[in-house]
Amino acid sequence: MDSKKKKRLEARGWVVGDTREFLRLTAEEARYIELKLSLSESLKAERLKQQVTQVELAKMIGSSQSRVAKMEAGDPAVTVDLLLKALLTLGVTKKQLAKIIA
Amino acid sequence: MDSKKKKRLEARGWVVGDTREFLRLTAEEARYIELKLSLSESLKAERLKQQVTQVELAKMIGSSQSRVAKMEAGDPAVTVDLLLKALLTLGVTKKQLAKIIA
DNA sequence: TGGCAATATGTCCGTTTAGACATATGCTCT
DNA sequence: AGAGCATATGTCTAAACGGACATATTGCCA
Q1: Protein CB footprint (7 Å) on chain D nucleotides
Q2: Interface residue ranges in chain B relative to chain A, Cβ cutoff 8 Å
Q3: pLDDT at A21 over 50
Q4: Domain ranges of chain A
Q5: What is the DSSP letter of A22?
Q6: Cα gap B102→B42, rounded to integer Å
Q7: φ, ψ (nearest 5 deg) of residue B6
Q8: A28-101, what's its fold?
Q9: What residue is closest to D16 (Cα–C1')?
Q10: Domain made up of B3-101: CATH architecture
């Protein structure tokens, strides 16, 4: 993982480090988180592309604006399941999903 | 969705119907579930390919045999998150994941 | 047939995540 | 500046999901 990517992860609060304790991510964890960030970034991009507000998307998926914001922010307390449901609701196809992930 | 696919979903307990109540899946829900089933099938295939038992895989991902069985059975009470973590632990690459999903 | 390893099914209970709400911050107009 | 909309952040409680355990069930081979 290059330092740019690492920074991107750290900036989102995924890697919490202080002088006493440093959480080292295993390779699988890092890959999982990267995947999740790809999904959240794509969600935001797709929503903006369709000119939908967070409030509107929230209604579409039966959720709330705050949760949508957290999804797009890559908050650790958001599951891939929820991200996928949102993307599917926006009409993203399997092929597009595949591209996002790969 | 063709009837074959529908049968496959129903057989897993996703569609619970009786004479009074019939749960109709929305298009998004169906697509989400199909995605999940693809992942669980791939998980089982990959595990078998690597000649790993459910007990062994459970240890690898810090879980239990029963949960691995549920993952592979496409149990609704298993998240995509968990399936992804298992697949990643087995060394499945992003490209392979993309193929599974698409 | 019985024994054994692998897998399936069902339940329990602690933890995590969900939506909801309140509130803060930011952005764009006029 | 301030009104108005969009987004961000933080917290609450109920619901969903997690691992663990117990207990079937299956399949294989001696």
Answers
A1: 5-11, 16-22
A2: 28, 31-32, 35, 79-81, 84-85, 88-89, 94-95, 97-99, 101-102
A3: no
A4: 28-101
A5: B
A6: 13
A7: -60, -45
A8: 434 Repressor (Amino-terminal Domain) (1.10.260)
A9: B77
A10: Orthogonal Bundle (1.10)
